[in-house]
Write a structure and sequence with these properties.
By secondary structure, this protein is α/β, with parallel strands linked by helices. The protein has one domain: Rossmann fold (3-Layer(aba) Sandwich), CATH 3.40.50.150. It has an eight-stranded mixed beta sheet with strand order 3-2-1-4-5-8-6-7. Helix 1 runs parallel beside helix 2 and helix 6 packs across helix 8. The longest helix is centred in the last third of the chain and has 22 residues. It is globular, with a radius of gyration of 18 Å. About 35% of the residues are buried. The mean pLDDT is about 90.
């Protein structure tokens, strides 16, 4: 399942700080959503149980067919579809209906999408009038190095402007950490800099993404393991150590709510 460090595990101990960071928005979303919910990029199902409990009906869509099949068996009362997105269509290529969902949830997905404008347009299309898109992605200003699995990353205003092309109302929040989380962040930053100092030719930004993905995964796993072994901080972080912030530009991740 965890072929890359980009698919952060709930089972690998050194992944815990990132897993808890990614779990937090699902906990928040479960307090908000109701009715018919679509999750774009459900992955291995980090937040599926939370969303299915909150929704009247849940639909999950992801490009990974094996994960989709496993989730369908685990949650037979819900609907799961394998598809490459955008556009939003089922495995038979038929587009999902217009004005179908009360909420669309997509967490840490848009940074992987080539045509991000179409991605947002499609999310708007399938929402009912008055429906809401809940979207998270990393804040580029807090990235410690280039992530070759990401097509692009955003600043707060860049993401807001993208969403405003299709949504009349966009509420901009962030996800940030308490002192414990930020201490781990600083440890991680110092550790990453020990690796990147050898990149004197700045190859991480000059080489194509595909050439960097395997070296990135190897070094990322080494770094996470090192941080986990050198102290207990990585194991101590819990999703309750993350908070919603009204300062997205100063947050680790963006948490935006766009209403149709």
């Amino acid at each position: 399942m965890y072929k890359t460090t980009e698919i952060t595990s709930a089972e690998i101990a050194s992944d815990n700080p990132v897993h808890q960071r990614l779990l937090f928005p699902y906990v928040e979303a479960a307090k908000m959503v109701s009715g018919k919910v679509l999750e774009i990029g459900c992955g291995w199902g980090r937040g599926t149980e939370l969303l299915t409990q909150a929704a009247d009906h849940y639909t999950g869509i992801d490009k990974n067919g094996a994960l989709i099949e496993a989730l369908q068996q685990q949650y037979p009362q819900s609907r799961f579809m394998q598809a490459n997105i955008p556009p939003l269509a089922g495995p038979n290529g038929v587009p999902l209906p217009d004005n179908e969902f009360d909420y669309v949830v997509t967490f840490q997905v848009i940074e992987h999408i080539e045509n991000d404008d179409l991605f947002v347009k499609e999310a708007c299309r399938v929402l009912k009038p008055g429906g809401t898109l809940l979207l998270t992605t990393v804040n580029r200003l807090f990235s410690l190095t280039r992530n070759p699995w990401h097509v692009r990353e955003y600043t707060a205003d860049e993401l807001k402007n993208l969403l405003r092309r299709h949504f009349p109302t966009v509420a901009t929040e962030g996800i940030h950490g308490n002192a414990k989380v930020m201490e781990y962040y600083e440890q991680n930053k110092a550790s990453v800099e020990k690796f990147t100092r050898f990149d004197i030719l700045n190859l991480q930004y000059r080489l194509p993404r595909w050439m960097l993905q395997i070296p990135y995964d190897i070094l990322n796993r080494m770094n996470r393991n090192k941080l986990h072994e050198q102290g207990g901080l990585a194991a101590e972080i819990h999703y309750t150590d993350y908070v919603r912030s009204q300062n997205p530009a100063g947050s680790l991740d963006f948490f935006y709510l766009a209403k149709k």
